[in-house]
Amino acid sequence: MKPTVLLTLGRLPKSLDLARGFAREGWRVIVAEPFKWHLTGASRAVARSYQVTAPAVDPLAYRQDLLRIIAAEGVQRVVPVSEEILHVAGLHGQLPAGVHLHAGSQQQLLALHDKRRFIELCGQYGVAAPATALLGEPSAAELASDADYVIKPVYSCSGRGLQLCAGGTALPPVDPLQPQVVQRQLKGQLLSTFSLAHAGRTRMTVVYRGVVMSGSVAVCFERVTEADPVHAKVLAWVERFVAASGFSGFISFDLIDDAQAGVSGIECNPRATSGLHFVDAAQLARAVIDPHTDLTQALRPLLHMQQFYPCLTEVQRVMFARNGSFSRGLAYLRSARDVTWAWRDPLPFVTQPLTASQIIILALRHKATFGEVSMLDLSWYPAALL
Fold this sequence. Notes:
Helix content: 25-40%
Number of domains: 3
Number of strands: 16
Strand content: 15-25%
CATH architecture of the largest domain: 2-Layer Sandwich
Order of helices and strands: EHEEHEHEHHEHEEEEEEHEEHEHHEHHHH
Low-confidence stretches: none
Radius of gyration: 20 Å
Shape: globular
Largest sheet: 7 strands, mixed
Distance between the termini: 35 Å
CATH class of the largest domain: Alpha Beta
Structural class: alpha/beta
Mean pLDDT: 92
Strand order of the largest sheet: 14-13-10-11-12-15-16
CATH superfamily of the largest domain: ATP-grasp fold, B domain
Number of helices: 14
CATH topology of the largest domain: D-amino Acid Aminotransferase, Chain A, domain 1
């Protein structure tokens, strides 16, 4: 009988990669998803999908739904995919014997997700990060008075609530229901990473950059190779942070390579990000199952990958721009490999306009990007039930 893995989200291409990888390794794949239909559910790799309570709506009911699925399907391994990991981590101590959860403790993940606490950890671990203060503290006003700065919610993702402000402009009032940080705005190249870590050891890291953006979220991305001098600097930063934290699981960072400050970490995503697509799906699944798996040949021989439909939307949006963004975007659209397409499993790509319709409707309703609205019912909020 095949072992069974539960993926706790199905709407994102990351879920699809994980589902295909586990299926190739001989596992039976079950998906839990708040949406009625979703991208990964169309894949031949998935044995069954369950619709569950959205974690941001009712965290306790969400975890109870997952526990019922685990019992009914005989699940041996639970693998969170994206922002829902902050809720799924609350299952530690509640799972049946023999069920492994691929996530750190909720306390550890929340400390990394917290934009203020993460910067404090960078200081403790000896890695560079920009000056950051909680909005309302005297140091926040000092920081904003003499340099360009960024304001963002303490708990946020996909660029939601991000504000870029000129130095000397007035800070907004404090909202006790939405704590925010004020961070010095670094000037330089924005880079992202995706790593698989075990007991403080970085088993594999992908360094990449966005080349076509939807808001602040990349929909076409380029892998940074070892030939680029910044690769070694980013890798050293990541390895030092992971070693100091003793982290195990998926962990991702946003960093800026500033001409004066060097490589600095600005945010941590204690979960998988789009860099996952540059890793062979079967080898990634194998490494989740066995953290000692050899990953020296795990990277796919691709430098550019895209989410085709969002990338198409963004390229069309700048069709009449005069800054060259249309021609650059069109070149990536024509050459980059789509993250969902597979000859042996074509339905996720073919049916994506239908399976993504719930996200499209939300984007139109909220006048926001696809990336922002796809996280609305998953995100962690301060009032969330622990």
